[in-house]
Specification:
Elements lengths: L2 H27 L5 H39 L18 H20 L1
Helix pairs in contact: 1-2
Length: 112
């Protein structure tokens, strides 16, 4: 699996959420909202997100690689389900089974 892309997507989503949380909490805690407080809240949110992004990438990279290694070590299969379902490559048999199901479904839809 493409662990780099997964880590990038997860960390980006997490950091964006943290950015908005810090921004809105900063605004809520300000007694008066002015242009200066908006700029200060944006700068603070950006700095927190930038520092957090580095830490989150390290943590998420370790987490994703651990999950992938654990799934490969146990020779887990996607049919078992769970979190490893998203990290394991599908078997050829599984893909053929899905294609057959889609073909059967398309035939049933055409008859209706």
């Amino acid at each position: 699996m493409d662990s780099v892309r997964m880590v990038k997507t997860l960390s980006k989503a997490f950091v964006v959420v943290v950015f908005w949380i810090v921004f809105f909490v900063s605004l809520v805690l300000m007694p008066v909202i002015t242009v200066n407080t908006l700029i200060f809240a944006l700068i603070k949110s950006f700095l927190v997100s930038a520092v957090l992004w580095v830490l989150v990438v390290i943590i998420f990279d370790s987490l994703v690689k651990t999950i992938i290694a654990d799934a490969e070590e146990k020779e887990a299969q996607r049919i078992d389900g769970g979190l490893s379902y998203h990290f394991i490559k599908p078997d050829i048999n599984e893909l053929q089974h899905e294609e057959e199901n889609l073909a059967d479904k398309n035939k049933a839809d055409k008859k209706s």
